[in-house]
Design brief:
The chain is mainly alpha-helical and 242 residues long. It is built from 7 helices and 2 strands; from the N terminus they run ααααααββα. The chain starts with a helix and ends with a helix. Keywords: Coiled coil.
């Protein structure tokens, strides 16, 4: 009985799954507060900036709760959901970039929310390690190393999200001016998109050739079987004539 009561308690305390609308609002709310959430927090202003960051996450949670129809999300839930979406988006992107070996199921396609996140991450200079249990990223000016070291200092990276809707939020947001992408960034983005299209076309071509090969084998099999049946019918006809 105690075990059954414990299971009922766990079941009743389980939080409802996130809806697609909540995720879209989350992505947009984070994008609008990008500079406060993922800006550098070093030097004398580190403590003050940390408070600004916490306040920004509270605003994100408030924006999500404004459209939530089932439950009120905490700041901790909002941060974890954001980290989970970003991780899944990266995993799906990596799986789609790997060359196809001709076997196994096709990698799952990113959801609309994940796709927006991937598009916004294409021109990001570099990635950093984990900070306080959350995957963070930071823009490094000057010479950018090929990899980032894991440190004990809090390092955050700028993340930009595509606009999804301008009518999702009732919370007040300070206007933010975002830098315009340089021509080299645009060229890099186009090259990345072209590479992805090439990989997709190659995978489709390999799949097509595999299907053609299979159909040819089936065609050859039926040709041989037809010849065999004709020979049998010819022999049966000769026997009948005798």
């Amino acid at each position: 009985m105690e075990e059954m009561a414990s299971n009922i308690t766990k079941s009743s305390s389980r939080r409802p799954n996130w809806t697609e609308r909540e995720k879209l609002v989350l992505a947009e709310a984070v994008r609008l507060r990008d500079d406060r959430l993922f800006g550098k927090m070093r030097g004398p202003g580190g403590i003050k900036n940390s408070k600004v960051k916490e306040q920004a996450w509270e605003e994100v949670a408030k924006a999500v709760n404004a459209v939530s129809e089932t439950v009120q999300r905490s700041t901790e839930e909002v941060r974890k959901q954001y980290a989970n979406i970003k991780q899944r988006a990266k995993e799906k992107s990596d799986a789609m970039r790997r060359p196809s070996t001709g076997g196994g199921p096709k990698p799952p396609s990113p959801t609309p929310v994940e796709l927006k996140m991937l598009n916004s991450m294409e021109d990001r200079p570099t990635l950093c390690g984990l900070s306080s249990g959350y995957d963070t990223e930071e823009v490094i000016l000057g010479i950018i190393p090929s990899t980032c070291a894991f440190t004990n200092n809090e390092e955050n990276c700028t993340e930009n999200f595509e606009n999804t809707s301008q009518t999702l939020y009732a919370t007040s947001v300070q206007p933010v001016t975002y830098p315009t992408g340089s021509s080299s960034t645009v060229t890099k983005r186009r090259k990345t998109m072209k590479d992805e299209e090439i990989l997709t076309l190659r995978a489709e071509r390999e799949k097509y050739l595999e299907e053609v090969k299979k159909l040819k084998e089936e065609s050859d099999y039926y040709k041989v079987k037809t010849m065999y049946l004709k020979m049998q019918m010819s022999q049966m006809k000769k026997v009948a004539e005798q």
